[in-house]
Amino acid sequence: MSNEIDGLDAVYAARLYKMLSRYFDEQELRSLMFELGVEYDNLPGVGVIGKARELVAYMNRRNRLNDLIMAAYKERPQIPWPHPPQTPPIEEYKPQGKGITKNVKNGLILIGGIGIIILLIVGVSVIFKSVQGIMNVTNFPEPNLVIPQESVGATVANSGNSLDKDELNSSNNSSTLELKSLNVPTDKLLVFVRGSEHDNSEIFTIRLDDNKLTQLTNTVGQNWAPAWSKDGQWIAFTSDRDGNNEIYVMDADGEKQVRITQTSYNEWFPSWSPDGRSLVYYSDRNGNREIYTLDLETEEIKRLTDNLADDVYPSWSPDGSQIAFTSERDGFATIYVVNVDGSNLRRLTNSAVESWFPSWSPDGSLIAFHSNISGNFQIYTIKPDGTGLIRLTVNQANDYDASWSSDGNWIVFNSDRDDLNKNDALDEREIYIVRSNGNNQVRLTFNNSTVEKWVEWQP
Fold it and tell me: Is 49 helix (H, G, I), strand (E, B) or coil?
């Protein structure tokens, strides 16, 4: 295995990823990566040392090595984690010859640079207008794909995730009309997580009928995994604002934010029972990650799964009798369903591929999820008995985190298909919807500088 990582000293890179592999086993490295917002199974590399190396490379590309060091120090404070080396200054090219002073030379460079920038701006403007003219007179065939522009109404307090000014001014009423023509339930909110690789992750809602975007959280910690109560009045979510990951609840406007779990462990990804009286989530309170339920009235906690592998991302069925979740007990991430009393455990998906984030349809007849059955991650549905597997999205990118509309006719998800440069420092994901039969894929957001994920449709 090569120690070389682009833009990073080879000796430092090898030291860091070997230390990570020495002091973190696979489960602990997964947890560390999760706290950093990195999906373990989405990184290449084999074994703990391979994943550790790819994690170092990933964080280095995004200028987040300090975040990695701080997270590792938080988990292993007794280890002398090495600080990233300082990047040496680029030595200025000095041509041989005399008769030109340093100030004049710098002035000429500045003037030349400004001239190049002006020429580039003019050139891009001309090209844009030309392409725009061509687009106005040419009908390019693109079946079943509708792309309305995102428009945004209001946001709350200014934060590290503040919206781009152009985005705030991109109101486009034709987008809403287009969605309504497709009978998309535009009267419902979408809740999702928005963040960048350098800022906190915060929770937002967007209303499709008037394109109003609202920021619900604004804390020093990470806020993620929002989940609607079945009456659409409350949102449960995970936050590490108080140190470790805990479950919180707030109303649909972001008010009345209340911490629900009070432990020294980590609790993640809540899902509501249909009657709103209980939450299901996963926790590492007993070592590895297992599924638990919490009665919000009695505060009784019940452990639903018990095995040596991780059981994660639970989703409560609409009739309240079953819980779908992802388990790694077969060596791969696989979708399982179990009764709420822990009985009748059964596997739905093939154990030789990765399948994540199950989501029940409103009538309970289907479960949506994303899987790499085809090589990259795409959206699929399957019946609760494990039959009737259907692929909904077909592209060369990755589609994640499916959630159903209240009428069961649409599925919302996030995708990196329009990330034009997947090797740059930005992990760009946008929100899309698709009919439950795979038709009419619609892009909803156009904020290419951030990650938008863990989106869920209001019931």
Answer: helix
The closest alpha carbon to 431, from 459, 408, 409, 405, belongs to 405
- Secondary structure of 313-375 in the HEC alphabet? EEEECCCCCEEEEEECCCCCCEEEEEECCCCCCEECCCCCCCEEEEEECCCCCCEEEEECCCC
Burial class for 161, CB neighbours closer than 10 Å (0-12, 13-18, 19+): buried
**pLDDT tens by residue, 137-186:** 333 233 233 333 332 222 333 333 434 434 433 434 546 777 888 999 99
Classified as helix, coil or strand, 10 is: helix
Per residue in 408-453, pLDDT tens?
999 999 998 877 665 555 567 889 999 999 999 999 887 656 778 8
Beta-bridge mates of residue 145: 441
For tokens 């090898």, the residue is 14
Task: Show Cβ contacts of residue 148 under 8 Å, excluding neighbours closer than 6 positions.
Answer: 172, 174, 175, 176, 178, 179, 442, 443, 444
Strand pairing of 451-457 and 390-391?
unpaired
Indicate the SS3 state at residue 455.
strand
Determine the straight-line distance between the first and last CA of the chain, rounded to whole angstroms: 49
DSSP state of 242: T
Answer for the pair 270, 238: CB distance below 8 angstroms, yes or no. Answer: yes
CA–CA distance from 439 to each of 180, 371, 433 (Å)? 16, 19, 10
Predicted structure pTM score: 0.66
Among 155, 135, 162, smallest CA distance to 147 is for 135
The position carrying tokens 């000293």 is 9
